[in-house]
Every structure is written in structure tokens, then in C-alpha cells.
User: Fold this.
Amino acid sequence: MANLSVRQLSSGVIRVKGNRIAVAVVVLAVSALGVAGFVNHSAFAATPSFLSSLNAPSPIASTVPPNGDVNPYGIAVVTQSIGKLTKGDILVSNFNDKANVQGTGTTIVEVSPAGHVSTFAALTSLPPSDRCPGGVGLTTALDILPGGWVVVGSLPAGRASALPLVNPAGCLIVLHPSGVVAATWTNANINGPWDMTDVATSTGVDLFVANVLTRASAERATPKSGDQSTIVRIAVSLRAGATPKITKSVVIGSGFLSKANAAALVQGATGVALGADGTLYVAETVQNRIAEIPNATTRSRAFADGATTPSSGGWLNGPLGLTIAPNGDVIAMNANDGNAVEISPSGGQVAKSTLVPKGAGDLFGAVIASGGHGLLFVNDGTNALDIAKAM
Assistant:
């Protein structure tokens, strides 16, 4: 099983899923377990954390396609067999080209649970009618809509070098289930789409997109420290036989700090995950925190100043990708140490697990495996798709 711990709070008590345990009990438990300052979560919780239910990770397959693209970022599980998509397979987007230049990856690969890999889409160029400002550089923003439509974010860096950015506002690219480009979406609210999640509506889906740029920063060659990026909700209509269309977009969160980063191109608001109560959780890498936007599905204007912060610091270490565990907790993937951190809806950091030992720079997107039977994640260190299976 992967390394797992639960943190003792400075107040002398341990909070596990919102419960407080008397100091005397903690001292006895720690003494009995022979652990100084850390205990196994399952020793105190009525039900174990999701991370404690997982075995040590193992690779499924390389995510490097024939053209040599590397740096896997986005990840999505296929829920319907249609076109080139097979139910249970996993899509992975690549952010870098073969030369490992940031923001120049153009491929999405499809990986079966057994490890068979095929290229779902190779977006070396876009149709003249569907342009993307700056070109193609596929990000962590990857989603599969009902009907098999695939939406992927693009934040291109240009062919010469990762920085400075060239026309970096980017776009959302819509792909037919066959992997062919059906449309590109651009508007004033789409500025460096970096991650994405969705929820079904009566007419289609709402997409929640984390931007790492603002229109002001997109007009500069390089984003400056202090630029404030946003979270946008995009209403998409779905109609049989028709390409999905944007019907409305509204900024629901603002004030997130973004800045240029030589290793990751740009850092800002990254992972987004929607809780059952309509709270949208946002990983803000720069400030090392998980923010939340309440009433994200119905909000009509921005929750300002970077939203509220239920969890920061502690085991968090540059959080990037987010996903919701079957128990409702938030799983955050650390950029700086290869650990996953489990956070309760109230903000308590209830568990951590080492997915990639000494894995600084290796973790990005993550999703829950079909049926809740594990954690799927991209491993940039090995350019692979890995899984930590449920025991």
C-alpha cells in the first residue's frame, strides 16, 4: 500500500473527517503504534479514507504516441462506446512535443485498462474555419460529453520556445467521437483554459473551466506575477445529430493568482472538481491552497478575491489536478513532491499518499477509475498512465 499518514494538529488533537479525539487517547494511540506525530487514518475513522483503500500504484501503459509527444496532462474516462471511443478506456492529452517544448503537444491517446494504446486525435493543424489563437498546445482541460464529444483545452506556446507565449489566449477544441475536429470555442471568458470538469443539465452540460490567464495578461508576451485569472461556467447545448454549442458563459470566480513558470509554462488556477452540493473546488498552485466557490452551478456573477480557502499549506505542495473521491472527499495532486492529499469537504487534510516517490513535477491530471475501483493519474516522469487500484 502507498505511504499514508494522518496529521496531528498543533492544538494537540487529531481531526479525522471532522471528529475530535481527546489528547489522552491520541497519546495512547500514538504510543501503541510507535509513531511520532503521525498515525494511520483508519485507526480513528469510522470509515477509512479513499487513499487508504488503495494499493501501491503501478503503470498501465506509456502515453507516448507515434509522433513522440510527451508530458501527459489531461485525463478522462470513456463512459460510452461510440466512434473511436471504447467504454472503460482512458483518454490522455499531451502538452509537449517530442523535443519536450512546453505547450506544443498536439495528441490525445486512448489507453485501454489492459494497456493497449492508440492515437485518438492528432491535431497538427486545425481547419481554416476553426482556428485557435496561437495554434495548438493541449492542456489538462479534457472532458468527454454525452454522445462522445471530446472537449480539450489548448494553451499554445508557439513553436520557437515555451516562453514568451505567443497569442496565448487559446481555446477549447471540440472533437467528434471519431477524433476529428468539429469546432473550436473562443470568447472573452476563455483565456488559457488549464483544467475542466462538467455537470449534466436539462439541455446538455455545464463546463467549469479554470483559466490561467486574463484578457489583459493574454495581450502581454509573458504573464506577470499578480495577474488575476478566473473560473468560468460554460453552458453547452447538446442535440442529437448536431455539434455541441455554447449558449452562455459566465465568470463565477475571479482573483486567482497566475504567473509564468519555466517548468510548467504558467501556473494559476488549475484543477477543478465539483462537489455533490454544488461547491466547486479549485486548486490554486501559486498560493498552495484549495479554494472553493459556493453555488457554482447557479451562480450568476463572480465570487471575487479568489473565493474562500477551506485548506492550505500542510501536506499541500503546489496542488494541480483535483478529483472527487467516492466518499465525497477532494483528492489533490501535488506538483512538488509526488503526493496525493485527501481533503474533506470541511477542509481537513485527512490523508496523504505517495504516488511517485521524489516525484516533483510528475503529477498533473487524475480521475477516479470506473466503479470507484482506484485512482488513475498521469505520470509525467515516465510519460505513462498509472493506477493505484482499490484493495
Remarks:
- The chain has two domains: 1-48, 52-389.
